[in-house]
Amino acid sequence: MSTLKPWIKRLNPLVESLMAGLIGLVIGALIMLAFGYNPIAAYISLFSGSFGSVYSWAESLANATPLILTAMTFAIAMRGGLFNIGAEGQLYIGALAAVAVSLIDLPFPLNAVAALGAAIVAGMLWSLPVALLKLTRGVHEVISTIMLNWIAHFFAFYLIANVLTDPKRGEKTISIIESARLARILPGTSLNYGLVIALIAVAAILFLLWRTSAGFEMRASGYNQEATHYAGISLRKQVLRVFLIGGAIAGLAGAVQVMGRPPTYAVMSGLPQLMNLGFDGIGVAMIGRNHPVGIVFAAIFFGGLMVGGRIMQFSPGVPLELVRVVEGVIIITLAIPELRRLFTFFLAKFKRGA
Amino acid sequence: MELAHIWGILFISLHAMVPITLAAIGETIEESAGLFNIGLEGILLLGALAGAIGAEASGSATMGLMAGIATGGLIGLLFGVLSTTLRGSQLITGVGINMFALGFVALMLTLLGAPGFHSVPRAVQVPLIPLGIGNLSPMVLVTVFLAVVVWWVLRRTQLGLWIRAVGENPAAADVAGLRVNTLRLGTAIAAGMLAGLAGAYLSVDWFGAVTKEITAGRGFIALATVVFSGLNPLLALLGGFIFGLFEGLATWISTYPAIKKIIPWQFVAMAPYIITLLVVAGAIGRVRFPKGLGVPYLRE
Question: Under a CB-based contact definition with an 8 Å cutoff, are residues B65 and B204 in contact?
Fold first, then answer.
């Protein structure tokens, strides 16, 4: 691809993400056709449901908010050459830590700040063992994060049922104190100032990665660990940084979700409003090519799919779950490196054949 | 605790061992060859769905298990092609498989009529062997047999040596005339088939139903079991049994209010994961994984 001009080359990631998105939607359409649905009607309903009005935009942005954060947890690790899939568990713990602060009666705005702070610290603490196990015992982060996700899962169940339980309703935790809740940006929608917090985090990570020496070291060790080592950059420090920052952001995602999303402002038993946000964040990070700005757009896309999927379920009656199938196909497609080159290769072959 | 309780827990443990061990020995085969598939959970889920549909459509439990194996093999093939010839990221492909499976199975359950739940008629479930002290699934015996076979193939045959060679040093194996990608692809398919069988066992045998939560992280537990066992299929049998034992204990405790008060069931359910972390942390110094694990092979 040496014939390509450099500025086109820089657009490669964008083109690849769009291609993967298209492939996902096409395979989704094929599945719909196989079951006798009209895919065009379904997609019109899906996208007008997610981006067709001010209300739907607000809901899509509200759904994007936690995904922006969990995606950054994954992306920072990828930038540093590590595979952190621990956001899922850290998010549960963060949300519950934020709820726990409501046990104490604090004045506004101290209560909101304390809840966000508690979630950040809790997320970091839940992430710390991953770094320590990797550094001291050489345990691969995939294994330790998966284990910690499951431990968090059952620990959350325990906290909901035994410790933070709402005395009036056993199936949920106590609610965040009213004054500590994040205000809505648009009345009548779920969109709240959590989005602003997420965007501040995006700006902070952008600054960290590209404007500080710590960020440079992280990215360098992601490119070439051996070279970085010889350049005198401590790998131990990178691993600790990646997992502590990642844990903090994932914990924040949990806090923002429980403090900002109406109507309950509590963690429900079975974790319905938290489940899979960490894993979906991996998909968002992939589509956003592990870049904070790309992640914002990818999260809005995923958030939109969630909202529009519910609308699609109503009018052409295509089950909501189709959306996840499409997301899965997109991620599998994005796993292929140099997707664009592969595509042009097949295109050339096809042209020669025709 | 009466004797009957002990038998009860033993049987639950053995039945819980089957899916974990089957998926783990499959993963052992492909990890020996250098492939790391974290999409096991998704393959289990798709296998469970395929098993249920296959058993009902054909009216036979065996055909259901076969459908699970075929589906698993197909996903294994997809994973294998993506991570060998296309040099894709194995971890990301795995994540994608999990997400796809979750969506696809939930979608199919909705399209089959009852959203979220689909039961398999008793007549097409795997018949249990009555032993007097309890009913045992023949799949427990199949699992033990397969674990021994996989151990024998990997450790005692030429094929096993080839598989380990492409995992350890693909470049050297290539120079020695082995076809690295073909061998890796083969192990990916075999691993997929075993995970598919494990999934079909869940729906056609153990639970007699499919839900989208049916796998409950067993694919991930299988990954941990592989680490625990240090790529030894016989130890995977033991690892699967220990995980099963804790699942059995958790189930047992959750039905006894007196014990529930002392030890909350959530802590018992958590125990296998904590123990795995500890065991992995302790064992990792001794366990050696193939050098080429997780890295696509590119001939230079």
Answer: yes
